[in-house]
Amino acid sequence: MIIRKIREHDAENFLSLCKQLDEETQFMMLEPGERSITIKQQREDIKNILSTYNQTIIVIESNKQLGGYIAGIGGNYQRNKHTCHIVIGILKSLCGKGLGRKLFIELEKWAYSKNIYRLELTVMMHNKKAIALYKKMGFKIEGIRRKSLLVNNVYIDEYYMAKLLY
């Protein structure tokens, strides 16, 4: 397994990964079939992320396929450019192998190099495995987003979690 920064030519594989994650888990944002982006649009999105100093996507590659990722999207303004919102997804077949921890380590190295001070994310309160990983990586719960998501006609609360790097 290789952990590396995404490349433009990963667009098709990355889109496939995201669609598979949409199908495999209810913990990602999009419902199965809701992702309507084209490969060309995905390539443009990746190109834009790679050209923005405080944004990145780091992927797990195995047998020329992508098996997971962590995205860091920094703020757009002077007042929040030091803050980075995180999204992470790993295929079920690769869970439990320490890859989430490795992705966070790589993201933190990148964040330090970009003078990003604050990492933040949201997580469904019943996603115990993810919460355990985030706490292990030093994230703290800062608040609760009540009924922030609607999944299968049930409102879901989320924790708002963050980690200060220095």
From TrEMBL:
Residues of the signal peptide: none
N-acetyltransferase domain location: 1-166
Keywords in alphabetical order: Transferase
The keyword Transcription is assigned to this record: no
GO function terms (MF aspect): acyltransferase activity, transferring groups other than amino-acyl groups
Cross-referenced InterPro entries: Acyl_CoA_acyltransferase, GNAT_dom
Taxonomy, superkingdom: Bacteria
Protein name: Protein N-acetyltransferase, RimJ/RimL family
Organism of derivation: Desulfonauticus submarinus
